[in-house]
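A reminder from the course coordinator: this example appears on the midterm review sheet, so study it carefully.

Given structure:
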């Protein structure tokens, strides 16, 4: 090699200056590549995390069920003590892990980067997962879907931080929606939930981000868990005339009941009720009291523990259930939700809705029992969450009852309207205000 060629960077002319110039010219493309890689990696990780969390929650539920069958009255002691201990641990170590997890993701959109150190940080969601599993072990009426949303958003935040990609609110929306899709194996429901709930003002540019994350997370979860329907294939249908009549009643009853649930939740969460002040002064003792309610209901009935998935699936299949199941399960879920321990309300709300549908079965004895139960589930879920499209698609995708689509839409919109008369503010939006991030000037 000659001295001249060396001064020019060798025979190919690769001088340090030219290399730096090349890197600068490729920097925007590299940033886009890292951003796409962060989404792809995050979506795969969400599918795996949702699957592991689901399997762990199911195992914990089976452990508690076995214990409760063998020692029927033991939960009268263990459940209240567990509620108190879980609330103390939550408030002491991971205060941002309390409750569902969906309000945290909604609040995190105000400042996504700051949220990765608080609302959707790794320590917060690790605590969230562990304490939710402990709540399931204690017999609490909780679901895993809400916590999965918070965990999924944290996973997206982590992959972006590792790859040094700026985190945007749309990424948190995509992560949370992917969590719903992976938890229920319902891709369309995840997309609609992102539009109706997670995004306060949905932007068109987020669409491909959300859809891509949902598809990837759903495929990963499905490849691990297999192709399944959450409640099994039902395929229920009924004549349009009777269907619309049932839809109106189920929507009204479900909307009023769901709106009442949301109103009590918000009154206690936002301090608009005298009991709220006492619960904030004595949170552990309040949780113990809530645990007593859950334990008494569970021990006496034997049916209100946990998510209520088995009872709901049995009622969808046409199995007779006690008419009191819906109201009692609603009370158990409310007592669990206001206690302040981590855990979601998606699955328990579907179980309550099945109980409401079961209440309506004697009134509409000429209609297929499974169809009436499903419409009850749509009505109550839409009444609680105030996301009618999500309610319809979740039930359509988890039961395969696409023949009921029109009655389900009618039920959901009636329920949404009825719920507004009872509770003006949407549940998750109201709860998100309790997690509002401080403004940085």
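Designed residues:
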């Amino acid at each position: 090699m000659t001295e001249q060629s060396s001064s020019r960077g060798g025979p190919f002319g690769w001088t340090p200056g030219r290399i730096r110039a090349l890197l600068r010219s490729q920097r925007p493309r590299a940033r886009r590549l890292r951003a796409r890689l962060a989404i792809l990696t995050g979506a795969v990780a969400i599918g795996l995390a949702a699957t592991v969390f689901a399997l762990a929650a199911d195992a914990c539920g089976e452990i508690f069920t076995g214990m409760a069958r063998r020692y029927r009255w033991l939960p009268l002691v263990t459940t209240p003590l567990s509620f108190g201990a879980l609330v103390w641990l939550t408030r002491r170590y991971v205060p941002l892990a309390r409750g569902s997890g969906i309000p945290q993701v909604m609040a995190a959109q105000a400042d996504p980067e700051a949220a990765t150190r608080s609302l959707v940080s790794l320590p917060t969601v690790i605590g969230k997962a562990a304490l939710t599993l402990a709540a399931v072990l204690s017999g609490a009426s909780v679901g895993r879907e809400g916590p999965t949303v918070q965990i999924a958003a944290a996973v997206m935040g982590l992959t972006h931080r590792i790859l040094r990609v700026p985190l945007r609110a749309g990424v948190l929306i995509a992560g949370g929606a992917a969590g719903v899709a992976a938890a229920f194996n319902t891709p369309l429901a995840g997309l609609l939930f992102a539009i109706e709930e997670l995004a306060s003002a949905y932007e068109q540019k987020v669409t491909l981000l959300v859809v891509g994350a949902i598809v990837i997370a759903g495929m990963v979860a499905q490849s691990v868990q297999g192709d399944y329907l959450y409640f099994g294939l039902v395929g229920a249908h009924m004549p349009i005339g009777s269907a619309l009549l049932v839809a109106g009643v189920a929507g009204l009853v479900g909307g009023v009941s769901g709106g009442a649930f949301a109103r009590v939740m918000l009154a206690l969460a936002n301090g608009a009720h005298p009991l709220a002040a006492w619960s904030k002064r004595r949170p552990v003792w309040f949780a113990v009291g809530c645990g007593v309610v859950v334990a008494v209901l569970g021990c006496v009935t034997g049916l209100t523990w946990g998510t209520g998935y088995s009872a709901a699936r049995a009622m969808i299949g046409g199995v007779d259930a006690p008419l009191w199941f819906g109201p009692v399960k609603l009370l158990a879920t409310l007592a669990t939700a206001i206690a302040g321990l981590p855990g979601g309300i998606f699955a328990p709300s579907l179980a309550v809705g099945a109980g409401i549908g079961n209440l309506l079965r004697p009134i509409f004895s000429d209609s297929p029992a499974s169809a009436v139960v499903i419409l009850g589930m749509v009505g109550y879920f839409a009444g609680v969450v105030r996301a009618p499209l999500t309610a319809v698609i979740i039930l359509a995708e988890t039961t395969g009852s696409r023949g009921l689509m029109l009655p389900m839409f009618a039920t959901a919109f009636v329920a949404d309207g009825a719920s507004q008369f009872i509770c003006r503010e949407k549940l998750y939006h109201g709860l998100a205000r309790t997690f509002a991030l401080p403004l940085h000037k």
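Residues 362 and 369 are 9 Å apart (CA to CA). The radius of gyration is 24 Å.
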